[in-house]
Input
Amino acid sequence: MQPHLAGMYRFAFRLTGQRDDAEDLVQDVLTKLFPKADDLLAVDQPGPWLNRVLYRHFIDLTRKRARRADRPVSSIMADDVGQNFLDGLVDSTNEPDRQLGREQLRRAVGHALQSLPPDQRTLLLMHDVDGWRQEDIAEVLNVAVGTVKSRLHRCRAGLKQTLGEELEPFLARLRLDD
Output
């Protein structure tokens, strides 16, 4: 399982949005699978299989938390999923106008990602940021590849609409400057 730990952690982080929760989720799954370590050798593609187990465990935990507390599942998810990725982007120039534009764009993309439901945000980040193949996502989520494609299309359309609304004042100002 060692070669798959980094990928499991990234996936868990995308699901939970918090470092500690992602580590706990991976640890829970590994602890659960440890007694069955010999059976794991028979799995053909352990990466997608481990992520499927991780995803199902996450769903189980989310449902348990939702039953315990009377609050929506979206409130269980962290508000800053995707923010660490956006914060990690390095600014290559020091020009103030470019820095301001990048900061506005970063905020707009972060807000647009936050406006997506957690499942759509996770799907989009898995495919477009982490580079997961649609077939692997379909296997992990236990849905058809066509379903993954249509969900990705809806995610991107929602992101595009939100970004358009968010960036319209900024783009209008740029048009006036030109």
